[in-house]
């Protein structure tokens, strides 16, 4: 069993999907596109920091952006442990879903 919440799992998957572009804003936008939910910025950064502390993500601060007053960005990438926990989570999901489509189809015939 994994110790990931649904939100943490979604964030890890978003970081993996975004690759080198994985920082808070694109993670938030990607999850909004996929889930249809408007997640607060704190709803992204708090779990990102927690996932770094758990060792599932690494974070790296960029140099400030070249434009005047440009802010730096904190980029995230999946660690080996993060990949392991995602694989374990997927295995649990697959076991839970196994055969349910068939059961649903069989029960709809009655």
Describe the structure in your own words:
The protein has 110 residues and is mainly α. It has a single domain (6-108), classed as Winged helix-like DNA-binding domain superfamily/Winged helix DNA-binding domain (Arc Repressor Mutant, subunit A, Orthogonal Bundle). 58% of the residues lie in helices and 9% in strands. It is built from 5 helices and 2 strands; from the N terminus they run αααββαα. It has a two-stranded antiparallel sheet with strand order 1-2. Helix 1 crosses helix 2 and helix 1 (6-18) packs across helix 3 (42-53). The longest helix is centred in the last third of the chain and has 18 residues, at 80-97. The relative contact order is 0.16.
Which properties best describe this structure?
110 residues, elongated, 58% helix, 2 strands, mainly alpha, Arc Repressor Mutant, subunit A
- Write out the CATH superfamily name: Winged helix-like DNA-binding domain superfamily/Winged helix DNA-binding domain
Q: Cα distance, first to last residue?
A: 36 Å
Widest beta sheet: strand line-up: 1-2
* CATH topology assignment: Arc Repressor Mutant, subunit A
Outline, from the CA principal axes?
elongated
Q: What is the CATH architecture term?
A: Orthogonal Bundle
The domain tally reads 1
Query: What is the total tally of β strands?
Result: 2
Task: Kindly state the percentage of residues in helix.
Answer: 55-70%
User: pLDDT below 50 for ≥5 consecutive residues: which ranges?
Assistant: none
| Order of H and E elements | HHHEEHH
The biggest beta sheet reads: 2 strands, antiparallel
Question: Given this structure, which CATH class is correct?
Answer: Mainly Alpha
Averaged pLDDT: 88
The radius of gyration computed from the alpha-carbon positions, rounded to a whole number of angstroms, is 17 Å
**Helix vs. strand class:** mainly alpha
Instruction: Output the number of helix runs.
Output: 5
What amount of the residues lies in strands? 5-15%
